[in-house]
## 1
Amino acid sequence: MDDLLREFLTETNESLDVVDVELVRFEQDPNNAGILDNIFRLVHTIKGTCGFLGLPRLEALAHAAETLMGKFRDGMPVTGEAVTLILSTIDRLKQVLADLEANEQEPEGSDTDLIGELERMAIAGTVAAAPAAAAPAEPKSSEGKLAVQTLERPLRPGEVSLDELERAFRETAPEVPEAAPEPAKAEAKKADARKADARKADAKAKGPGRKPASEGEEEKSDTKVANQSIRVNVETLENLMTMVSELVLTRNQLLEIVRRHEDSEFKVPLQRLSNVTAELQEGVMKTRMQPIGNAWQKLPRIVRDLATELDKDIELEMHGAETELDRQVLDLIKDPLTHMVRNSADHGLETPEERRAAKKPEKGTIRLSAYHEGGHIIIEIADDGRGLNTERIKAKLVANGLASEIDVEKMTEAQIHKFIFAPGFSTAAKVTSVSGRGVGMDVVRNNIDQIGGTIDVKSVMGEGSSFTIKIPLTLAIVSALIVEAAGDRFAIPQLSVIELVRAQTNSEHRIERIKDTPVLRLRNKLLPLIHLKKLLKIDDGGESEPENGFIVVTQVGSQTFGIVVDGVFHTEEIVVKPMSTKLRHINMFSGNTILGDGSVIMIIDPNGIAQSVGSSAAHDAEEESEAQRNATIEKTISLLVFRAGSPEPKAVPLSLVTRLEEVDCKKIEQSNGRYLVQYRGQLMPLVRVSENVRVKTEGAQPLLVFSDAGRSMGLVVDEIVDIVEDRLDIQVGSDVPGVLGSAVIKGQATEVIDVGHFLPLAFEDWFRRKEMRAEALTRTLLFVDDSAFFRNMLAPVLKAAGYDVTAVGGADEALAILKRGQRFDVVVSDIEMPGMNGFELAEAIRADARTAQTPIIALSSITSPATIERGRQAGFHDFVAKFDRQGLIAALKESTVEWSEAA
Amino acid sequence: MSANDETHNEYLTEYVTVMIGGQLFGLPISRVQDVFMPDRLTRVPLAAPEIAGVLNLRGRIVTAIDMRRRLGLPPREDARPPMAVGIELRGESYGVLIDAVGEVMKLADGTREANPVNLDARLARVSAGVHRLDGQLLVILDVDRVLDTSSDALAA
């Protein structure tokens, strides 16, 4: 392609972008002559250049647009209609330009439609604005200067005379003195100034608050800067950057060598080289940075068009447009941003009527803001619209099969809102031409993910939504702190490091433990700590003093935490090299680098670490609030959490455990393949939860002791972790003998142990013995509980107490059995059951003459006086708290004795 | 594998032969960038087990793949350092760790046979066929499949 043409295309496209933005501004501020002059000049320049290059179609269009704008200058009122018309003319210009770029010649076609409209409006304006008619229709003053400028007729109605044009140039661009005499030449000169114009417009777009008064002055200086700027191919810059990166590496290697050789004569020149390199690096880095405003440039126009199309009144606020970020990143977020602004305008903001009804100002606001925060750029897109409709998202989730109805009910609002980023999710009730085409926020999120960013949404129904995008600056060279963990070195980007703390047992900073979470008390704040080697699973098992260590206090966003490392070396400028695709999935690392000594090390990604800190913390918080919510519904019980044979915690209801013991390992004896220990004058068999549990050979062996009727069994465990109050909700059943299933206890999946399984392991005759004894005094017992867990747990206990237990899962089932005529000596029933509850069951049993005399014992987690009273009225003999095993056995004995006496 | 070493009988393909766990393997020479002694390997925590680590090879970061692990072989008993074959894939550098490097062999594509059915599954997964040599079998490594560690995580 012709160089001249290429230059023309680039510059004209840029100018048109500026005109776009400026026109929207102008529409809002029609009295600002400065803006109008700028637009006018840009369009005129385009027109002139087109004429020069022999592009009649473009020229005619530009001319018609220019004519209409001339009317504005003459005082014609600026209407939205007129601006729309000019904007569509600009779109047409762009279209023609695109064709021109592809085919190197102006495409065939007619623009009479637009030109006619433009002229009609210009004439209407002339008629409307009487003074405008005074604009003299001068004949073309200069003949033969430019063939293409010779029109069929001297001057169209309201056409701006060349003199007037030149006046505009003289006024606004005083540094181009030769503007008047030879237009063609002036064009060429002005070509230089064009870039200046573009830049100036840029500056204006970025700083909307700036007063037009200072414009003339500004322009002067801007032009000077612009005259000194050149266009550089992006690839050239990228290459330069790579070379500088290599230079930095080499410099680092040299520095490393000199460090080892004292008194080297290289020292001084190397120091100089080092400084120069640093400056060079900074300089090259600057060339890559661009204000984010560049990505926002097209948004005012888009929002304006949307407002017209959707018949909404929308104001777009932009803050922090000058925030700079890497141009690569900038390119990648342009589209997601546009998409999100469209979304806000289309789905977020209500129509003026809806807004009036909601007592909001008719004009909706979309606020874009950008700022730096700890090595990241935060971009917020907020609107004061209707907010996300949680119910509709829920319905959609279920309808699209993204989540089950039950799951949805359990989720918090924030969790549900996150689903708008799920693939194939779009809530727009109707598909408008603007958005809701099925490709939605998931694409946005993908794009942001790709550049290592995150996106979050906060929304309040009726008040608006706010999206927060966080993207790394991804500078190719960063300053990093080199640390050591388990013998390996890692780099932590300096940007996120706040301070270094040396923790020692006796110093004011020391590592404490809250439950099992290590924390650091630092200036009266508790910092969560993460051991790097544990996090990275490279714990060599070597001596690590839990209370000492170096703590790298790190901040990521609003989150502050400490990374515990074994050693801290120094800071070094490192060149971030992308991770191999085989390793990119590890979110703890953001890349790798070659150190001065030539070795490769991993660069820690503080975000990844924060996520692992955050997820557990957030999880806890959620669990807690959930636990609180449920507290009113279901009481919590005490659970003993322990570890045995595997790192996963196991639990058993504390009420089942008789004692916790630690016995000296020397006392553990082995006989007949079984472990035994002398305990309170008896031989107590020890049972392991699984084959994986090792009976310790030295030190103290922790045991859970279960006793019944004078016999005891010890369950060998590795460690007793904690006693927690939590509700017990077995979510996943288990096929493993001895394990009832898994429940979430204090936010962790925990195996719940079936004690009943282990009792016979200790004494084969544990139940048989009871049964034999029970033969003499067998009592039949009907046990009603909806929870399989309680049935499984209590049935063996009751059996052990000498009862022939029939366990059923509900009141209906129990009544059915009783109706069939089966007799029971005693009924034990839960109170809180779905369907028929315990009270109703008791009443039903009392009502039946056959069973009216059968004693009934209530089992309940609620033992308030009121419920006990209610229970008595319903016909319960006794009221026992769930897990009060001894209480239950006692109550059973009492009631059966009563019964036998009564019989 | 590119098509040219598949069908045409008259073509010769050059292979770099390597030893891994006593078995002879051949890598198409067109895919081999260089052979080097891996030095100062940095392990990568949380990485897949067959990733031996990363290393600096003349200013480039190379991901080293432990072929013994990849093939499910036990680690070497003798303490001799492994060799590495440098391979490039989609702009990234890899070093395939092997026991020893042999010679370069020119073999006719026509004599290449499909994998014997009784070939160890782990071997078959990365093999592009075999050549019968005097007294031993040369297993041709399919470089792309060797480096594609993700797919057989699913298959395994």
## 2
Amino acid sequence: MSDPFKPRPAFAPWDRRELPGLFDVEESARRVGAYKWIEMRLFEALGGWIATVPELDVKMILGRHCYHHAWHAELFDKRLPELREMNTDRLCAPANDAMEAFVEALHEPDAPELTIEKLVGVFRVLMPRKIAAYTFHLNGTSRVTDAPTQRSLEFILQDEWNDWREGEMLLQSLIDTPEELERAIRRQHELEALVVRAGGITGPGTIGTTTEVEGAGV
Amino acid sequence: MRKQLPPEMLARDSRFVRTSIMDQILDPRNRKISERTIGPAKLAPGRPASADRARNLMHGIFTGEIQALEGAGRTMFDFDETEAPFALKLDMARQCWDEARHVEISIKLGEWMGTEIGEFTEATFLYEAACAPDPVLRLCGVNRALEGLAIDVFNTMKEFGDVSGDPVLEFCEDWMLADEVTHVKMGSDWLRRLTADDPERLERALDFQRTVDKLFSLGGFRGETDENPVHLARKLREMAGFSTTEIDEIAELSELARAEGKAAVEAAGSA
């Protein structure tokens, strides 16, 4: 039996977590506030659309996904006071005006014939952007100091992957004709242009900045 | 997307056939049916056409669940956070997931009972209760009145599953009942919180609930005698937070609705 009083390293040999991370408290809080804002706008839109889509399977899936995004918003809301932001409403805001314009455009389709447009906005534009932003945060933040955010992001990303896959499959099952394909592409293009202008979910730098490295590409 | 979606704009595929609740109650054939002496109206396996009546009721539950899903979704979208606080929206999102599951259960149960989607008509009166311009009224109309009715209906169907030897029906209804008790509690909690400093708003909401409760009693559809197909589930309603006085009031409203419904059928038949 090993001696329980023999000193061991504080960190196990396989624990490669490091200090510091890319974000200080303020920056992490700003990003989390933007995440909460976008999750709220998304679950509200999904909830509103349930009554406007005639496809029964889509209706039920929107109902389920709607709760997932509400839960994500709740996790982010709970994290904000821990990031020194006691007034959680202050940071629950769009990254910039362009992001607000993107969400306004995302919410736009209303008619029952526009299920493809509704789903493209969510599953081909917004969710890939969210997955990118959350993955960047997860990979970039300190896994020691910002561990609570990281833990939430891991749960959330699992939902995002599952829901994105289901949404993409829904779209593939709905797009049958060249005209429907054209509608999907057009819608994606319109919304991508807006989200590019915004710089992503948290504005420019959402997934970091690409800096030129001397000798790169040589 | 527009705010406040009217019932006529609810999106459905081509299998669904819409009808109005008044057309159903005032159908002149109802008089002939009520004149027949075929025993009590309570859902019982020995009664003629009980299987068809149970299938019809199950289809009604299915369309009701769709509308409850749509109503909860609209409450999230139609109001900003000054009207519907963040925590209320989270509860509505949770309810959306629950109602989506209930739609799934209802479809599978319908298939189990031999029913196709669209075999029976759909009335939109449940969603109409979710169109009130004040979220507190919606909570009273949907979470307390409609979900309260759901407790009565599911309990009736669960008992029918038990006495008719259908364990699948009994199993599913019991699970849905558990969710509905939560939804009623949710409605009562938010009613209290949102009207804490506004007794007039509370009274308006309770008035709306009485109106919806009476409408949901549907000319004797719900009550406490063998003449009512759906029975008031007193014990489960108490678990959901209804007081004895409130339950007594619903029983009185149901009796009133039964008498008014009977008079309407007679008037329609003699016209």
## 3
Amino acid sequence: MSGYRIIALLLVAAGLTLVPWYALQSSFYEFTWLAKFGGKDQAPALLQIKNFSKPWLILLPVLLLAAAGLYAKPVNAATAAEGAVRSWARMVVFIGAAGALYVLAQGFAIGPRGYNFGFLSAMMPEITGGQFGLGAGAMLVTFGFLMICADGIASMGYFRGDRFIACALLMVTSLVVMFVFFPVVRVLYEGFVDADRNLSFGALWTRFAQPKMWNLTLSCLWGGSGCGVAWNTLWLALLTAAGTTFLGLMLALIVTRSNFRGKKVLRLLTVLPIITPPFVVGLALILLFGRAGAVNDFLYWAFDIPPTRWIYGLPGVLLAQLFAFTPVAFLVLIGVVEGVSPQLEEASQSLHASRWQTFRYVTLPLMAPGLANAFLVGFIESIADFGNPVLLGGSFAVMSTEIYFAIVGAQLDQGKAAVYSIILLSFALFAFWLQQRATAKKSFVTVSGKGDTGLPSPLPDGVRRTAIIVGVPWLALTVVLYGMSIVGAFVKTWGRDYTFTLEHFVKGFAIEHGVNGWHFTGAAWHSLGNTVQFALAAAPLTAIVGILSAYLIARTTFKGQRVFEFLTLLSFAIPGTVIGVAYIFAFNVPPIEITGTGLIIVLCFVFRNLPVGVRGGIAALSQLDKSLDEASTTLGAKGVTTFRRVLLPLLKPAVIGALIYGFVRSMTTVSAIIFLVSGDTELATTYILGRVGNGDYGVAIAYSAVLILIMVVAIIFVQWLVGTRKLGRRTAIAPSTGPVAVAG
Amino acid sequence: MTQATKKGTLEFINVVKDYGTGEPAVKGVSFRIEDGDLVTLLGPSGCGKTTTLRMVAGLELPTKGQIMLGGKDVTAQSASQRNVSLVFQSYALFPHMSVMDNVGYGPTVQGMAKAQVAAKVNDTLKLIGLNGYEDRLPSELSGGQQQRVAIARALVLEPAVLLFDEPLSNLDTKLRRHVREEIRELQQRLAITCVYVTHDREEAMAVSDHIIVMDKGHIAEAGSPNQLFFEPRTAFVADFLSEANVLTGEVTSVTDGKSNVRLGDATFAINAPFDVGPAKIALRPDVFDVVSDDRGQPALHVKVKKSAFVGKGVELVVDSSAGELFVFLPRAKATLEAGSEMRLAFSALDARVIK
């Protein structure tokens, strides 16, 4: 019997006998369950069957024995009759699938108070008591059975008999279905549930067709009151997308096509959206333009203009989003502008086109798909954004904040949150679909790798002037904003008392020497510790699942590959607030009952950041010639060997990229986890949101500064730790080739 | 002429490869390659030669048909199970591994002990003349050296069949002839079965025992380089291998097993009986001589349309009574004036009646 099969059987066996079957009240890793091993809550499945009347679990050990029996008598392909191997393999598939599905099915069917569904109690034998959420044992058993199932699939001849590929595919698909697809479907379901928990289409319709949502007035244009939330969201998103695309293009043109001096510094801008915590831009805008902001102060002092609250509403949110997401568009568009082959522009010029004509009729059309992509990314970013609207929205409501208030507000209205989520999700998925189409037409952009010769032609004067006139002040303002957010951390009370102080840092991060040694007495330590811990846990998982998925997408072929790719990238399009709501609905009740734990936060991080890992991996893999895999295969290596010995070492930069992205994005996520945190698992971003809510801007800004510092250190540290080995010509796979992240 | 089936005997039986994108890439191909032969798959791009090679390697599985290696059916075997090695067009050397690790990769992943691997790698590197380069990275080698490492890596497993996918296309012209000779010499020394893919007819003729010419997923013709060059049976091979002019003539009568042929204003006899009626005649561009009187040779009266001096001779496009002709005159030293008329004689032995 091969090692793989032994491991699979052992996993199932251990899951049934050694670890608690059900979820524990305390953390698994505290190992307090060892002390009460045989107890009702801590017992493994076998003891649950024997002592605690859970007879329905008996099928699992039976299936294990069946699998072991099959493995003990494998069919010898050389001597067996035709079809014998196949039918043996089919049995293995069946047992594996049955085992894994049964774990889930019994979990859904039998809840804490017995059968969950009326028809089951009618059909099935009576049971006493019920069960709570699944635990470590159930997880091991599921994985073991999945491995067995994958083995069977490979033995049937699929994936060219490669067990590794079958297993990886099955695992990733199961995880994505469980933690992306299922929650989303759960939200849809919740939208149809009426007050008495019955399914009804009417319930969906009444929630859907509210004037509050769809009221369309002229005032929508300037964010006036009386405008429907859906229109607000869409209008804001369109403005933001147009604005960021325009600004991003101007900046990209300055960097790639002008001799502007500060263009090296400009490239640093691309790092900003990655390491900026969600409230920094909004807070800085308040410090600058708010009622007590520097600009208003000055205007009042110099011209006697009374301060207004214009920043709270559409203008403020729009401004904040422009600042927050222009670097993202910039990042996308640098690649697009650089992708335009200089030869084509030279051809145009040699045909006596003027600079402007070349730009208008050659360069711009070539960039059109890229511009569309940047626009749609901006759109998705905007509708998913939660931090800026919640901070600056005032009475200007958008979908993401409405979902938030539907859950945490005075009237806990799950149905409303669900329907809002559905609508927001449809917007996002539609934009995502358009974006996929825009980027699929790659034929325009000419990155051949064959070293296009020729110099990019200079910009027409008008375009160059516009770029400089728009770009430079914008940059200056960005610098001022970030500077503001640093200064703000060191003054007593912005707007009233500008004396220098460290009290905000002391409040958050004090370390005192007490009776029993050093104590972390600062109020922020707890949330910071949590954040770092969860982000550290999530990063490697994101990298593993992401790179594995990328490998499956880019390097293997199987039916339904497009669907698989869509599933792994799906969470990119799901706004954070929607994911948060979905996770609550999906994981608040057995069989997977993990709300309030750290696990749900880690899982949320992993699957929200998964598309980043996947795309980074695909981008990196597409730079590695496929003949490398084939060479390895023809030399007798199996899928797993090729992956480990050839691809993984060459993918190191992509792995590092995924690690850093995973870590940093987890640190700055707010919208997705805002519903998932509990007192124990409070995170940095939710703590900051709380401070902001109390008007305690000083601490919030100081905390943000600390976060930025940690992230920068982490990036530098990882780069230094892993290092980059010389790979001759094939090195250039920068992490920045990865996709652009949706912040919030 | 089928020989006994040995370790390196490779056989394709009605193999079809359909990617499901319109036309199949390979449409029912059958051939047999004898042990120890070097056989070239030759054809224009898109003719299915690379797909055929990849099916030998196991990198593609046939949609239909059978592949036999050493008398055993290997159709369903994956690439990692087949006793076949491939030298890639791009070499596909692992850029993060030294020459040693690259060549030792195959034995290592198949579980050979370290010391044995090292010994084997050393033997192979010696064979290929690369000892002393063990610790270099591929990026530190010249193109020719990289190529040799790729060959060593494929050879180290002592495969039954060694495959070459356009191995010379990444080398500069001067080096090509040299490497081509090396490959042929090595193949004969080891008496190893080789399948070689190229679109360069000169390269194919220089290295091969046999050539299989492919066209649009079919085998157009197979045979020795000599046969295919001098005695093509199809218009495609005549055109592809020697750029022959394929003209329409007529077999007027058959006497004593000889066919009397009329081609434009030329008449001649061919030493084989053909059906009386219209026939396609192939004439290579290099068979013509400019003559003032025919002296019994068949000849065509022509008028020059275009003419170009290419160094080793003069290329002409001429109008004749049999149609337009492409002619190469190796001994001419200057271009000929357009519009000038002359007589071009050729030997009846060089005229081929083809399908």
## 4
Amino acid sequence: MKTLFLSIILTGLLSPIFSQLKIGDKAPNFNLKNIDNSYVSLDKYRQEKGVVLVFTCNHCPYAKLYEDRLVVLDKEFKPKGFPVIALNPNNPVTYKEDSFDNMIVRAREKGFTFPYLVDNIGIYKKYGATKTPHIYLLKKEDNGFIVKYIGAIDDNPRDSENVSEKYLVNAINLLLQNKDPLVAETKAIGCSIKPY
Amino acid sequence: MHKLLFIAILTYCASQAFGQDVQIKSVNIKEIKERTKSTSDTIYIINFWATWCKPCVEEMPVIENIQESFKEIPVKVLLVSLDFENQVNSKLIPFIKKNYILNEVVVLNESNPNQWIPQVNESWSGAIPACWFIYRYKELFHEGQVTPDIIKHQLNSLLD
């Protein structure tokens, strides 16, 4: 009994640290405001084969380095059934650049072809995202969206010309062949999330 | 009078030190590790930061104050900047001069985060700021901003 009690306490203490979704977990739904003032929810993507979720923002240099690559990715994989959805979890009080108005400006400048949502209710926490950019690749299965890959877009943030491993593209391509990604988790550098 | 002269000399020295060209070395994780192994009595506190990272800049006074607060233990603070190499001259060096950063600053020369982040610590998600504490064979890691209490706690656990 004591052990049980102790383990309950321990689980309670440890859970914030291990709250990140794991590969194979069901992805939580969300319904968030897009830059066009409409609301976008994950459930609406039921007809797709999957979704590329990216926690990103305006201000972070690492997020900026990947904006163009996200647009290319969406153009290639939206027609194949894996569209991109971007979520900005940062509070504009911390970084003015991350405000709703600035998100609209940035998306226009960069020609975003995908939704860019305001995560002001802590969806990032449910996923366990810690930084921008942070990728969650989801595959649609019978019981919902399942996490198949977590981490970086590729292995060279600073120089897109010299990428040697395209982790995310490789993962999507394997999912398209009904296989699981060979590399399911990678580490990426990024800016810590400054939430609402 | 003496006091005044002393202050004048100090001011002059300080202005000389900061007026000089700041040289920033570029290092990789392996070189940082080798450096920490070169001494056995010093605690290394390696702070991963960047001038564009607001929480990093916010915690800089705490980091800069470490040596002042822990005089009884030899502590070496190494500020490992993730500023991009093409911004060293335009952003990093001006920041060091403007804020009178006294700790040694180096710029990280690594490209694949998936490779070098786990070399620092397996638990690190890759968000900065982050602090890496090394003392002899012991290592501790803290992701996120530090406070004087966190630093104290980490140093005490290393010395235990």
